[in-house]
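Ticket reopened. Same input as before:
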Amino acid sequence: MKTRLRTALPTLALDRDSGIPIYRQLYEAYRQAILAGQLRKDAQLSSTRELAIELRISRHSVMNAFDQLLAEGYIRGDPGSGTFVQAGFLGDTDLHDKGKSRCQELPGDVLSREAIRIAKAPHMPASSPPIPFRRGLPAVDKFPLALWSRIVASCCRKMRSGDLNYTEPQGSVAFRRTIAEYLRNLRAVKCEPEQVFVVSGSQQGLQLIAHTLLNEGDPVCMEDPGYPGARSAFLGVGANVLTVPIDDEGMEVNKATQLPRMPKLIYVTPSHQFPLGVTMSLGRRLSLLDWAEQSPAWVVEDDYDSEFRFVSRPLSSLQGLSPDRVIYVGTFSKAMFPSLRLGYVVLPKNLVRAFSDSRRSNDFCAPFLTQAAMNEFIVEGHFARHLRRMRVLYAERQSAMLIALRREFGNYLQISNTDTGMDLVVWLPASISDTKASHLASRAGILTMPMSFFYSTPSKRGGLFLGFGAISQNQIREGVKKLRRAIHPLLSHG
Amino acid sequence: MKTRLRTALPTLALDRDSGIPIYRQLYEAYRQAILAGQLRKDAQLSSTRELAIELRISRHSVMNAFDQLLAEGYIRGDPGSGTFVQAGFLGDTDLHDKGKSRCQELPGDVLSREAIRIAKAPHMPASSPPIPFRRGLPAVDKFPLALWSRIVASCCRKMRSGDLNYTEPQGSVAFRRTIAEYLRNLRAVKCEPEQVFVVSGSQQGLQLIAHTLLNEGDPVCMEDPGYPGARSAFLGVGANVLTVPIDDEGMEVNKATQLPRMPKLIYVTPSHQFPLGVTMSLGRRLSLLDWAEQSPAWVVEDDYDSEFRFVSRPLSSLQGLSPDRVIYVGTFSKAMFPSLRLGYVVLPKNLVRAFSDSRRSNDFCAPFLTQAAMNEFIVEGHFARHLRRMRVLYAERQSAMLIALRREFGNYLQISNTDTGMDLVVWLPASISDTKASHLASRAGILTMPMSFFYSTPSKRGGLFLGFGAISQNQIREGVKKLRRAIHPLLSHG
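Engineering reply: fixed in the latest deploy. New output:
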């Protein structure tokens, strides 16, 4: 027998208790050693028999490890002479270090212009638990989870193998039919199931709209103040966002018509203006549609929480007045809960094909089970019952909020009641900075959004946007007290 | 009454004892007939009344079936004149031409350049039931639905109100930790949970990558032939897609280095090249990474079905060799089922922030329940067991496929075994057009993809890409027989 230098591994500590198979540990050790240059090109390895004895492991484990190293080209077996480290890739180049030094900082051209625009666009703060007065969260504490679990379980049991396949990019037919019927009945949306697109929420809907209809530089008209999520979607594709102020009747369309450029798209929240809560009057709706026809521009109607208007039935949708001009966007994030990830877009018929292509290229379709369970929840009447209960609950929470605000602040602060029981605006005296107030509040554990955050132009008056849909009446009362204590220094000097 | 030729279905066997509603059977029969080209564009259907009498079923059932077909766009109703087969399904249009006709209804400036590019990009055909030999579908017939239902139900019951809120844009922490561990152990991916992004599937991952890293005109390098979903994502953002041929060791990197421009991104499928099934050799992997360092370019590793390699254990990931350079993309669509809508992207650490912004602006996050259930499925060991069972099943199906192909076609057709038991390529004699063969097959109800569809340049030799992961051995045998009968005229004249 030839006495040649056989290469075992310099350092090899096999851990029998790690839960990682021995062969895998051996494979990894060799692989690392080869990549790191500890084992050089053409070095001969110990035989599987020798190694098994040396390491006191089964020969089978060694062979398994070698098989894998062979399959991946780290070693080669020369019949009759042994096993050798494969040529041509040995560790003179440390790939890892190379990579690291190259990527440590991102040079200016690494990200797309879109990514840079998105990073710069206003973001809503990241998710957080429902502490006072985080906005945008529905009453997750009162969601009927047990009922929902039963429905999900039953829908899951009823799934057949065909339901495991991709659904249509637009969403399952049954669910789209239900959504269309729901929107026809409750929101006077004029639509057929073919026009409905199931999406993961209004944000995906807005993204789909922005990417399918807008080019860099296209003028888009938004309300001022307005919804940051929409602004981020439009800014992302490089649209030129023009803003129009809001008064008691909604967007001031006569001012809009004086914009320097005709917009290609107009984004509005007519049922319940975000964040002021104003309902757009019928007169304004008609002027808006008229203006949109002349431009011509698509109108995007974001109907994000119309289900919860107390005073009257919610106004019929803008879409119903002009179904070929208006793209209607809605979400189940407020009426159900955000982590459901379901919403919908209703399109003019001539846009369906293009959106279907976009949707498929984007992420194919929504999960089947979520669609099936939501469909069942609506069809069986649970959704309508849930909405009724939530309206009562939100009315109670709103009332608790108003009482607490009056008790703590008297008539010192003006309150804009947004008529939906999930949020409202507290206006500060003219001299007080709302970012400063919001900052003080956050130091006391109270989340608020300064109203100036929603304006594209410096706002005349500061305010705090307060969400209270997700917290109990007790939390509301405690929260308002804390808020007063936190911002009191500002107010008394104001 | 006009005497016009009405089209009932050539063969229609309704089974009243099957437990499947009659309307659903009728719907399926029409749908298949339209997809297979048995019912041609503009053919008139019998009236609902006539059909009800003819088939001895209730008119209500017929109307239900027609409603569904209408909703899905398979048929159209012309008021006063009847119901007709709608244009544009498999048998009628060449896949490549599809895009062109799509946007014609809209004036040129209505859609974004992105939407127009996406419409023109090659699309995989729309979803369809698992009929032979539709590709890209796993064995949905053998998925353990009962077990999955129990896990979903249990996870849903365990949900707390906090779980109803938005999760992190990257996905829930527990699930990301599990994915990171899984990828570290099984694919030698070097990653921490912070680098993992939960997405709705590889397509959303590719979209996120394209939009975050690429501008219009940026050069991107792909394999030729290559994956149409990736091509569509890159073409969508206006990238300039350059292609490099494939040989037995994967992408011919020496040819890639001669491209006119250095790419900003290189997309590869090293574990299992799509669609040829080749595994990229270690030598090529290292040259590729070397070239990527020089460019410098990001490397996107799409590891879409590495779980199912038979012969050896799957090769370790490319990402493990250069974690700061490689973006790793994976999906649960194949290992679980497509309508789950879950996948993941592993990013170099310095890209995490930008992707997090993009993800939030895109659709916030994945549904909580799906993440929780998939997490449980992996943690409890069900996933590993499921994968083991599926490997055996796919090996059996592959073997049945190979036997059937040899029996029907002898040695006349060359078969490229792709080593994963979900699909393979049958190469046609040089003179035969694969689009023609695919067209003939589709008229006989057999779905195939012509290999020329995957090439950016005219391919030297035609072939048919056949998926068989989702169908039984019987269906495989019947399907191959039908395929032979369908394309026999071509072969005998070839």
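Residues 1-6, 87-104 of chain B have pLDDT under 50 and may be disordered. Residues 382-409 of chain B form the longest helix (28 residues). Please confirm and we'll close it.
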